[in-house]
Amino acid sequence: MNRKLFLLVTVLTFLFLSSFILLAAQSNQSKSSAHMKRKIVIFQENILNESARDELIRKFGGVKIKDLDLINGMAVLLPPQAEAALAKQVGVRKLVDDLIVEAQTPVKVTTKKIPVQPPETLTWGVDRIDADLAWNVSKGTAVKVGVLDTGIDLTHPDLKERIKGGYNAINPLKSANDDNGHGTHVAGIIAATDNEIGVIGVAPEADLYAIKVLNRQGKGYLSDVIEGLDWAISNNIQVVNMSLGSSSGNDAFREAIIRAHQAGLVMVAAAGNAYGGAVSYPAAYPEVIAVSATDAFDNLASFSSVGSEIDLSAPGVFIFSTYKSGSYGTLSGTSMAAPHVSGAAANVLATPVKSSYDWNLNGAWDPDEVKALLEDTADDLGNPGPDPYFGSGLVDVEESVTGYQTNP
Ligand SMILES: [Ca+2]
Ligand SMILES: [Ca+2]
Ligand SMILES: [Ca+2]
Ligand SMILES: [Ca+2]
Questions:
Q1: Which residues are part of the catalytic machinery?
Q2: Domain count, the chain
Q3: 20 to 30 A from 360, CA-CA: which of 110, 180, 316, 340?
Q4: If pLDDT is split at 50, 70 and 90, which confidence band does 4 have?
Q5: Quick one: 42 and 158 in the same domain?
Q6: What is the DSSP letter of 39?
Q7: Which ligand is nearest to the CA of 201?
């Protein structure tokens, strides 16, 4: 009996102590990984193979998050004290921050949870850019549009027919379903179905691809955006909408955008909501169509970023569209302006290339040709000619696909 009791006490003591040791170890681990920073390593071409790269990162106390083939790089967690030495290693070209990117909606979300699908309405934004007057010529049929965002509500009654695929760059084992609402709203502006319920998108027959790079809070990492762009290229996506941004750019971001542009992606991004402050990235890059936001009176939205990088403007105030869990909501932001232009680009891509815009004579639309057409046919706003507030003006979908305009 005494022996049994002794044994029991010994076992219990051991379990008690070992759980403390385990807890201490865990807290040490989380302490050390808390000190690690998310970085992007860009390697030189053809110096280190994949296992040599992995070994190098381990040697400097880092942890690999994922390879970034598009830029010959890797996203890593790295102890800050290792940064300077790693950056000098043979085979390492650059070491930059894995920037935080955010959804571009500044105004409090007012969602209407509508259990029954409402009768279909033409939103003021789609009406204002004369998309409805373009539909007898183009509805963006079968043009592949990638939405780099919080995902899309994959079973939304007004979107599900349009969604042809997706990818979750944050966790490839999970679906690209939207747990925030932002991406679903953006997707509806681009391509909500013409079906007598809800809303109609600018390009209501375009194919949508949900590329989840932002989390439930609408935030994400540059590395996931880069992987999302790579996925878009690999899956022959033609237009990518990026209603997201960071107040700064870096070489990893720039190189990814340049490669995506070379691959033929038409990239459209929200200018940002800095209330007259600088245009955010990636919108500020010349390869990306930067879109500022206007209201129903063609005024620039007070929250819109401005600058010489602005290419076009589009509706972005009180925009009604699809939202998560089969609902609808009204949102404001340059996040809402960009998808009006992405839809316009899809409508253009579904029409034969115009000879005057086929600069490289390849018989196909290239990103710069689409951009030039949208700029040339936009309705000038503000001071005559291109300006830092509206760029070339308000996108005019009718004129861009038909060559004439009912409402100049
Ligand atoms: Ca609809
Ligand atoms: Ca061409
Ligand atoms: Ca026009
Ligand atoms: Ca102007």
A1: 149, 182, 335
A2: 2
A3: 340
A4: low
A5: no
A6: E
A7: 1
